[in-house]
Amino acid sequence: MGLKKETTREQYKKLQNGSDVRGFALSAPDEPQNLFPDIARNIGAAFVFWLVERTGKPAEKLRIGIGHDSRLTAYALTAGAAAGVLEEGSSVCFCGLATTPSMFQSTVEEESSFDGAIMITASHLPYNRNGLKFFTKDGGLSKNSIEEILELASVRAEAAGPVLISLEEMEMAVREMEASLKNGQGFEKNQEISRRMSGDLYTYRLVDAYSSHMKQIICREVGVEEKDQPLKGLHIVVDAGNGASGFFATKILKPLGADIEGSVFLEPDGRFPNHVPNPENPDAMAAISKAVLKAKADLGVIFDCDGDRAAVVFSDGREVNRNALIALISAIVKKDHPGSIIVTDSVTSDELTVFLEKDLGLKHFRYRRGYKNVIDRAAGLGADGEDCQLAMETSGHGALKENYFSDDGAYLCVKIISEMARLQKEGRRIEDLIAGLGEPAEAMELRFRILEDDFRGYGQRVLDDFAAFAKKEGWKLVEPNYEGVRLAFDDAEVKGWLLLRSSLHDPALPMNLESARKGGIDVLLGRIRPFFKDYERLGLPEQLTT
Is the pTM of this model over 0.70? Predict the structure, then answer.
């Protein structure tokens, strides 16, 4: 018997990745292409259908912004999404190379105030991946909304409506409009495309508007006007990872007086030839650390490909990401919001909790992994009357209430750099803000591969059994706990914790372990090893098979 052919609905459904659409936009070994411009066309049209229902506006009154990062398939997928929007009668404002946070900003800024925005990106994933993110003025769309859009797109695909323009022609138009944006032109109507389509196609200089917005924030925070160059005397290097954020150096920092000499990988290149654009990646962090030391800079800033995540490096090369970055942003938040709740994901360290609660007087709320989970929980606490100013994941996704809870790497860096400029005037250093943050002596992450088709059900069974095993052993289960099984240990051999949880998307159970004592993780591994020997459909990491 041959393999069952997937239905159109199943093909589209497979493209959902939480609150994003992601797929293989180029074929690679064992990764056949499943995201095509025609699919993007139907998804763009489906976004129009979704917006019509949510806003009550007719399609011809909707204005939708579309931007992209530096990926090799950016133009093709942008052309597809734009064609779908135009065919349904809505206008497209083509924003060109942009960041994910700037695309959200385009829905709330008065000058643009788009009804919706689409970002073509797959964040830090390999060069052959790509995808779509969606925004309204209320923020990024939820998982349920993405399900609805993909369902609508699959229905449109099967209906096979009229094609008003070839995708080759549309891509050519997009490339020409990108060139006009680079030449400083904007708000220009593409007469030929608008004549042939139901909706109008314009250019919009989003990066310029977004950069102006960020410069205004720095000037306000530092307390000087732009002409007074609030960043004069600061040497800041930027690593954009050949993604979309190179403008942070040239359009924000440099005009405000900062020395950006020594910045690296600012030019967009979808092959990512220098390192993975990911602030969690050791090679990426080593690259910005090296750039800081070589340039003898005061600070280094690194972004992921689409600019919604960031990390920094101090002048001595110290990497400030994960727990340290959360601590730094929290210390800045504390000035104006003493006692605020800080919501993080579940894998933050005990040392961070001590720093937030003992040193800063804030409240630490550990929640589930997933940046949308963390942000939504923070927004929910605020809606319930709690003072919650920051939601931040160890991945580098961070969102401040004052910025619409938008996970914006550039905004986080603007807050850090503004504080740095203020401290410089007082003869103080940004490093001093987290001088009291401790670090675990040891940390490790393991992944247990689930070899069952029903990996969700099998994984939950393992978690339930592990909790029962821990109770039998007399170990302390941390409560309240919002994800997986978290155990705390405070004995002569181990002072630390472990968390076993389900992966957000993959057939796996990740386990995080930390210990304040050297050798503590080996002790923990010895204690849990007997539990896992009976689970034949669980691929054990090497550390538990020896």
Answer: yes
Going across the sheet that includes 319-320, the strands are 236-239, 299-303, 310-314, 319-320
**Single-letter code of the amino acid located at 89:** G
The DSSP symbol for 235 reads B
* Lowest-confidence pick of 78-82, 193-197, 248-252: 193-197
Provide the pLDDT confidence category of residue 1 given band limits of 50, 70 and 90.
Answer: very low
Establish if 3 belongs to a structural domain. Answer: no
CA–CA dist 148, 12 (Å, integer): 11
- 1 found inside a domain: no
Q: Are residues 285 and 367 in the same domain?
A: yes
Q: Report how far residue 409's alpha carbon sits from residue 304's, in angstroms, rounded to the nearest whole number.
A: 8
- CATH code for position 26: 3.40.120.10
Are residues 413 and 275 part of one domain?
A: yes
Alpha-carbon span 256 to 231, nearest angstrom: 5
Domain membership of residue 510 as a residue range: 442-544
Residue 231's Cβ-count burial label (10 Å; 0-12, 13-18, 19+) is buried
Which tokens is 205 given? 């200089």
Question: Could you tell me if 146 and 279 lie in one domain?
Answer: no
AA letter at 524: L
- Same domain, yes or no, for 161 and 246? no
Q: How far apart are the first and last CA of the chain?
A: 42
Helices (H) and strands (E) in the chain, counts: 16, 23
If asked whether residues 463 and 382 sit together in one domain, one would say no
* Cα distance between residue 126 and residue 332, in whole Å: 34
Instruction: Give start and end residues of each alpha helix (H) in 160-301.
Output: 167-182, 191-196, 206-222, 247, 282-295
> Omega into 480 within 30° of 0, i.e. cis?
yes
Asked whether 290 and 263 are in contact (CB, 8 A), the reply is no
Q: What percent of the chain has pLDDT over 70?
A: 99
User: Rounded CA gap, 478 and 325, in Å?
Assistant: 25
Q: In angstroms, rounded to a whole number, what is the distance separating the alpha carbons of residues 205 and 85?
A: 20
| Pair type for strands 538-539 and 508-515 | unpaired
Token duo for residue 278: 């990911």
E strand segments, 74-216? 91-97, 116-120, 129-136, 139-140, 201-203
Residue 527 has which token pair? 């204690």
Between 191 and 83, the more confident residue is 83
Region 65-94 average pLDDT: 97
